[in-house]
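REQUEST FORM: STRUCTURE PREDICTION
Request ID: SP-0412
Submitted by: Lab K.M.
Chain count: 1
Length (residues): 343
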Amino acid sequence: MSEVSYSVHDHLRQTRQLIHAHAQSISKSRISSIIRSKALCWAIVHDDFVAVASEDIYIYKISDGSLIRVIKVTYNSIHSMVALGDSLLICFYASTNCFRIFDWRLGELTATIICNVCGVDPLHKNMLVYNNRYMISNGQKLGLWDLKTCRVSVLTKLRHVTCLEYGFEDDSFLCGMSNGSLRVASLQGFFYGCTTESHAGAVSCITLISKNKFASAGRDSFVYVWDSQLNLCRKIKTHYNLVTCLSPISGDYFCTASGDSKICVWDSISGEFVCAIHEYSAKSLEVAIACKGTRLLSMYENTAYVWDLDVDSLRMCLHKQRLLSHAIDGDGAYKDISITTVH
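STATUS: Completed
RESULT:
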């Protein structure tokens, strides 16, 4: 008898693929509606309504995908949007460097704010609204907009910011930095917190998972989970490409989208893969996702898919993963297995 020790990577890779396929097959998540519209940007403006914009603004009902209203816009294309309360929608026009506020329920323009010193980067989550009055915009410079007086001030001390997210306090926000770190900033324009660890490259997106936890993704394809004190809780290897979007789901789950053509669900506590919600036919960095409770919207190639996520099914997926993934270590790497052969 002799013992031959070697790595059976191909076999374990197939095992992992079967595990993922099985988890995906038992998920009860389903498409509730499909919205087909040419879109440069979009924003969820209410629990059951989404605004999609290109040259004009289209308001769709999320639950059934029906078109509710078209707001004719005589200006240039819209690059970014964010909801302001339940009825107003803020749109940014890069060519004219201005914001216009629309009442999407009535289809009317209510205000125009022009600023030649602050723009918006359409590639990142770039506008945050506070108390329906103040807005932070992220472009070449960070701007603080007073939507009541239509004035803007430049936050000159806040530089090298790549993406934004709401903070844990009413007057704070989280900043992803170009050096891979994350910082906390105030509406007064000062940094007052910084992570001790950082991504290997610029931070691409941030999302709040709960009242005391948030996640960030970088160009290194890792997702980091942090607590409210900026302590690193979990480092998760998610996709093989850049993670372009993060979005929380009810409970401790969150979704990721990537250029590897997959939308996946993860457990933020354990860092484990739960299931793949969708896999696109072609690879793209332009996948966008957003969640409202257990409803997930994903947009790709001018089509938005609305998914009803079953949280109980996600828990079952995770339980099955744990039962079947004994051949895979905690970091998702393939183990070396010693195989004994008899001669």
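NOTES: Helices lie at 9-26, 311-324.
Reviewed by: T.R.
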